[in-house]
Queue: 3 jobs
Job 1
Amino acid sequence: MSELGGGDLPAEPKVEQLMGKLRLLQREKRQLEEEVRHAQSVHDSLRKELLDLRTEVNDLEGVHKDKEGTCRKLQLQCEESEQDFDRQLNQNKTSEKLLEQYRCEIQEVKLKHRKLRMRFENQLLQLIEQHKQLDYLFNPKRVPDELKKAEDKKRQLLSAEQVKSAQLHKLDEEFEEVKKQKQLETAAALMHE
């Protein structure tokens, strides 16, 4: 009895220990299962997050490609705009040169017109003056006086012509007389020799 009793006593603590260990192991198992569930949950959530991130990466890559395409288009537009600007700048320079040339030509034409106008005004003034003189000379009121003056002048000229003609005739006679006398003197001199 004492051996059995003695043999039983040591066996009880072993069962209790085993039961304690079992309970401990069961508790640890539950904790591990809880940790596994938690880890699985974290794993699932991380997997979902990874999928979401991959989707987002794909979306962002698409957006990036779109932005790159837009950027290329904008760069091309910018280059075209710069070329247009350069072209317009050159056209503006050419236009400014032409404008300056036209200004100079306009100034030259204005100067020529001014000279022509001044010459025309001078000619017009001369014509007006001539017209006044002609109007004065050929005024019907003055015709009788002018005719009388012309007749007087004609008489004076005829009278002067008669006087000159008489003087010329007298000079001719004197010249003939001198000529005859010279011939006589020459003949007399020839006879004395």
Job 2
Amino acid sequence: MELPGLGEHCSERTCKQLDFLPLKCDACGEVFCKDHIRYDDHKCSSAYKKNVQVPVCPLCNAPVPVQKGEIPDIVVGAHMDKDCKYNPAQQKQRIFTNKCLKPGCKRKEMMKVVCEQCGGNFCIKHRHPLDHDCKGSSHPTSKAGYAALMRASQTAFKSTGEIGVPSNGSLQHNRCR
């Protein structure tokens, strides 16, 4: 028992299958089954309208426009000879260029991490004045710096039994400098 009012027949000459979920080709507008919907499967005469691929220059990564009937390899070759904006100096730009100034540390960071006291550039691990044995100015530290000094002195007290005082001698607290 067939249901003649439902579905459509595949437009491919060799198929003509009754499909209840037919697919319409976006290039030629014909109706096809799932086996013949691709441009190559039904030899679509209008495929050039939709199946457009733009070659990319291998040197500068720019899209190279190709007119209908032109061979993409020849057009890309002409682009490379005349219009290519390739610059070999830009090919290898270094990202991690900020070397840590702590002696013995070879780490590099993407961004500068500058110490507020000595002005040196350090990695994330050595960014705090206590971590890189800062020899900068002895002006009062920030709230976070003061907390770090207190933690350092407490750990020194627990390990040695003596009260640890920072090398700059200042335990002053300065709010929001």
Job 3
Amino acid sequence: MALRRVLGLGGALGRRSCCSKCPLPPDFVEALRAVVGGPNVSTAMAVREQHGHDESMHVCAPPDAVVWPQAVGQVQELAALCYRCRVPMVPFGTGTGLEGGVNAVQGGVCFDLSRMDTIAELSLEDFSVTVEPGVTRKALNSRLRGTGLWFPIDPGADASLCGMAATGASGTNAVRYGTMRPNVLNLRVVLPDGRLLHTAGPGRQARKRAAGYDLTSLFVGSEGTLGFLTQATLRLHPLPEATAATTATFPSVRAAVSCTVQVLQAAVPVARIEFLDEVMVGACSRFSGLELPVAATLLLELHSSRHGLAEQQRQAEEIVRLNGGSGLAWAEELEERRRLWAMRHSAWYAALALRPGCQGYSTDVCVPISRLPDVVVETKRDLQDSGLTGPMVGHVGDGNFHCLLVFDPRDPAEAQRVHAFTQRLGRRALAAGGTCTGEHGIGLGKRALLLEELGQEGLDTLRRIKAALDPHNLMNPGKVL
């Protein structure tokens, strides 16, 4: 807890890690069992602690009970029960979030939706699919194998698709295919009092619409604070005919990031363009066993027709060379590309391996592309001046990058430097016209920066929306607002 106080997180927790703010009402657990059956309710401490944290650094805050509904009707009954008894509710998917979104800071009931795992409807002709919250992105793409379609949003972890919608996730393919927001066509939401809402209307999956307020976008990124996402209708994409990936090394961080901007300005249709600084490259090389030059590096992937791929490769190579880049060797075979991206997706664990026994925290700012080179260079200088271990990696095609800060939780002085650095970085992004979070969400730790980003009137508007849908503040309380 001392570390959380140093980082300014203690107030966000609102209670001690293993004590509810209010005890559950008498016979309440029996009422839960009456809805979903005894085997689908647990109050065991080990189970509660497993559901009281995600992959973030925030201290475990267990719920008082965990339930596993298996149908939307059960979610409705459980929500209505909690609403009548004024018991907090926390949605849980796979627990792969990075901002403490599943921590039950006021106790209550955790709804583990992983057993609702049906792919309800697949329309190849309409390029759409409807999934329940237990379906993960890898499970969906496995089901799509052989259809010529795929779901490209890839945050790295095998997250649940409804969880990805709840956090507004994106990942390495977003520069070509967008984030979760434009790829969600409809949501089935159980509201806090148990009512059922279809954000685009029941059964609707139109590719575009201009009918009323955009309720779907309201719930995408709501982080479980407005209701339970119990079904999502998603946009699918054709698999590219030809794919090629490569790495390119650069003499400096600025050269690598400037190359990114020029590739986008030249309209080269990159599907992925990822940045790793020299510290991150060295860590990933050691962790994954791939031998890469320890220098600022871009990972590029092109998706095209076989006819167009060669021209796009030529364009990318020319821009890389103009920025002093070298070492391009295109990988077109699937296994070669998989090894390359497995190395990139292991960046978090590679960073942690730099200091065994230490803890990690990932920043998540996003800035306009034109400001990216300056912001990245300033952040790199700030890291060095602060004496912190923080390899940099990012989806720079979107202006989104992360510092993977690795620090000793037993050293309050270092923890304080981490906190000060993250605040400076967030404000640096805001000053550049960007955001304090591109894809991880606000969760517990970024609420102060959200006020600076939106302003008081913006935050008050969010609070009025929250109060209209959840007047008793029962849905994932303590998060976002």
